[in-house]
């Protein structure tokens, strides 16, 4: 077996501007360098954030007008988004936002558990001072938000996603594997798409903050039981999101792009319920 870097050296490896192998984490990637990069980032973010609903047709002309970017960069961006599984290409009919299904949700959640738990286990074993500092700092910011008495619906979900991602990335950041972090990042995006579609963020259950605290404390104590809590944390999230999907309790989506007739027929609109259970998310 290859020799693992000792505690502390992982921090140095993972913070270099040029990693020794694998894809660079997004936090090390510069701003988009081309119009195709910009179009890709904006389409990617709008799908994740729920600006486009599952099965919406992604019409290049409409996207060109929306982003004020030419057709060629938009078409290139659509192909890149499809490669990530956020959109699907249907022959001559064009591109559509990927459907949202319970089966895919469970698949994403299962892989997120496996990759994130492995990352945390390695971070606990090999992460150094920089890893510990990242965990402490990101947890403080997330906990401060989760303890707010008043949660403004228009801004809370975006800020919670940003801080929640930062906390989980910090937990994973000491693993020493750029490839492992890359896959964790992709899976976070996919799960975030489902959360934003089906979860009421202002109703996040207080036990989520308790789990975050427990994971943080166990991880900093170099206690591998943190991995068990993290696994349970994700399982709860998938269970709640799946339940909301089945009950049709997803929040109303913004006005979608124009659909063609086939997409409209296969789309299943979700009616928001009058009352919603408090959400457990991860």
From TrEMBL:
SMART domains (alphabetical): HTH_GNTR
Biased composition (Basic and acidic residues): 257-268
Domain HTH gntR-type: residue ranges: 33-100
Keyword annotations from UniProtKB, A to Z: DNA-binding, Transcription, Transcription regulation
A Pfam family hit: GntR
Chain residue ranges for the region called Disordered: 245-282
Lineage, uppermost ranks: Bacteria, Pseudomonadati, Pseudomonadota, Alphaproteobacteria, Hyphomicrobiales
Residue ranges that the Swiss-Prot or TrEMBL entry lists as coiled coil: none
PANTHER family assigned: HTH-TYPE TRANSCRIPTIONAL REPRESSOR GLAR (PTHR43537:SF20), TRANSCRIPTIONAL REGULATOR, GNTR FAMILY (PTHR43537)
Name listed for the protein in its UniProt record: GntR family transcriptional regulator
Basic residues biased stretches: 273-282
GO molecular function, one term: DNA-binding transcription factor activity
InterPro entries: GntR_C (IPR011711), TF_FadR/GntR_C (IPR008920), Tscrpt_reg_HTH_GntR (IPR000524), WH-like_DNA-bd_sf (IPR036388), WH_DNA-bd_sf (IPR036390)
């Amino acid at each position: 077996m290859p020799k693992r870097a000792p505690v502390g050296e992982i921090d140095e490896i993972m913070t270099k501007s040029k990693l020794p192998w694998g894809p660079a984490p997004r936090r090390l990637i510069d701003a988009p360098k081309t119009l195709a990069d910009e179009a890709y980032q904006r389409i990617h973010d709008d799908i994740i954030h729920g600006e486009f609903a599952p099965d919406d047709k992604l019409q290049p002309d409409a996207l060109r007008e929306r982003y004020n970017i030419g057709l060629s960069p938009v078409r290139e961006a659509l192909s890149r988004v499809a490669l990530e599984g956020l959109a699907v290409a249907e022959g001559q009919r064009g591109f559509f936002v990927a459907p949202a299904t319970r089966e895919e949700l469970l698949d994403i959640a299962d892989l997120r558990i496996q990759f994130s738990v492995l990352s945390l286990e390695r971070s606990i074993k090999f992460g150094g001072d920089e890893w510990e500092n990242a965990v402490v700092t990101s947890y403080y910011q997330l906990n401060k938000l989760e303890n707010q008495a008043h949660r403004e619906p228009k801004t809370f979900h975006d800020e919670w996603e940003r801080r929640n991602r930062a906390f989980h990335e910090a937990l994973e950041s000491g693993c020493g594997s750029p490839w492992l972090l890359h896959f964790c990042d992709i899976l976070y995006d996919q799960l975030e798409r489902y959360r934003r579609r089906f979860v009421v963020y202002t109703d996040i259950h207080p036990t989520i903050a308790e789990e975050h605290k427990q994971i943080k404390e166990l991880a900093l104590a170099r206690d591998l039981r943190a991995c068990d809590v993290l696994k349970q944390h994700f399982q709860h999230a998938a269970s709640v999101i799946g339940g909301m999907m089945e009950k049709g309790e997803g929040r109303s989506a913004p006005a979608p792009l124009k659909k063609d007739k086939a997409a409209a027929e296969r789309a299943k609109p979700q009616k928001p319920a009058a009352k919603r259970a408090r959400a457990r998310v991860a």
